[in-house]
């Protein structure tokens, strides 16, 4: 990032918005908020700008309200009705949304910090958008384990018939995510503040460091070996749960083994 620091742009953004009477608020999000983890050189800027209803269209269409970074904007795309992305020539990313006060209720966020509030009611409006507290009902572990077995089984089958990209998606994507979802349901994180409620893949190295290190080889092993690796982890981590089915695991292991064996020379 130009200037080598995330914070100066945050300050410049707030100063720019404070000078505009049609801006009612600024809400920093994620690492930009700095409430649970500090930004680093790779962090983008995430924020909400709250404006008067008569100004919302102009703020979504133009970028004249952004402070000068001394670097050219090379990409500006509105990805939702309220949100947009900006990429600078040095690769720095902004992800933001422009809301009126009433539209803020449409947002979702987790770690947030209000740094400008001309209405005085943004804390109450923002609180209504926070994710609900974790439910106390029993997690559907049986369904998650079923998903994991299905993704391993179908994934190696697709690999065997030559659908390599689809196999990568199911083994290295879906089956790994099944493990991440099970971890969130069944194991307390090492660092609660690092949990990303929207993305199970984020900061797993901090929330479940041992399991993250164990899962990573599955992303680079050949597909059948990666599937076997994930099944071995499943037996080590989840076989104690009442929803675990040894018979299902055995059937999936047999299919993985069959896919791993070379075809006889007379089979075309």
Description:
This protein is an alpha+beta fold and 268 residues long. The protein folds into two domains: 2-127, Beta Polymerase, domain 2, CATH 3.30.460.10; 141-260. The chain is 42% helix and 14% strand. The protein has helices at 7-18, 30-33, 56-61, 122-127, 141-160, 164-186, 204-207, 209-215, 223-238, 246-260; strands spanning 23-29, 45-51, 73-77, 83-88, 93-99, 112-117. A six-stranded mixed β-sheet has the order 3-4-5-2-1-6. Helix 6 runs parallel beside helix 9. The chain is elongated and about 70 Å long. The protein starts with 6 loop residues before the first helix and ends in an 8-residue tail after the last helix. Mean pLDDT is 88; it is low at 133-138 and 263-268.
Number of helices: 10
Name of the CATH superfamily of the largest domain: Beta Polymerase, domain 2
Decide which structural class fits the backbone. alpha+beta
CATH topology of the largest domain: Beta Polymerase, domain 2
Q: Specify the CATH architecture of the largest domain.
A: 2-Layer Sandwich
Task: Tell me about the largest β-sheet.
Answer: 6 strands, mixed
Tally of discrete structural domains: 2
Strand content: 5-15%
Average pLDDT level: 88
Shape: elongated
CATH class of the largest domain: Alpha Beta
Low-confidence segments: 133-138, 263-268
Helical content band: 40-55%
N-to-C SSE string, H for helix and E for strand: HEHEHEEEEHHHHHHH
Number of strands: 6
């Amino acid at each position: 990032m130009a200037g080598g620091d995330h914070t100066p742009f945050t300050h410049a953004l707030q100063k720019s918005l404070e000078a505009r009477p049609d801006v009612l608020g600024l809400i920093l999000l994620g690492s930009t908020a700095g409430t649970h983890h500090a930004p680093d050189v790779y962090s983008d800027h995430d924020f909400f700008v709250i404006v008067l209803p008569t100004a919302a269209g102009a703020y979504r269409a133009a970028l004249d309200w952004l402070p000068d970074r001394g670097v050219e904007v090379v990409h500006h795309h509105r990805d939702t009705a309220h949100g947009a992305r900006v990429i600078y020539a040095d690769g720095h990313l902004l992800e933001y949304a422009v809301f009126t006060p009433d539209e803020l209720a449409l947002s979702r966020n987790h770690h947030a910090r209000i740094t400008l509030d001309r209405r005085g009611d943004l804390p109450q409006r923002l609180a209504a958008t926070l994710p609900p507290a974790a439910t106390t009902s029993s997690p559907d572990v049986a369904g998650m384990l079923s998903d994991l077995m299905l993704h391993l089984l179908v994934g190696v089958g697709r690999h065997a018939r030559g659908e390599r990209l689809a196999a990568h998606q199911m083994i290295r994507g879906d089956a790994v995510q099944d493990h991440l979802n099970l971890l969130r349901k069944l194991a307390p994180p090492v660092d609660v503040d690092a949990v990303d409620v929207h993305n199970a893949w984020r900061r797993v190295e901090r929330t479940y460091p041992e399991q993250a290190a164990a899962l990573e080889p599955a992303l680079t092993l050949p597909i059948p070996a990666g599937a076997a690796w994930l099944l071995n982890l499943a037996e080590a981590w989840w076989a104690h749960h009442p929803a675990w089915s040894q018979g299902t695991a055995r059937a999936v292991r047999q299919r993985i083994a069959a896919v791993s064996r070379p075809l006889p020379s007379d089979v075309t």
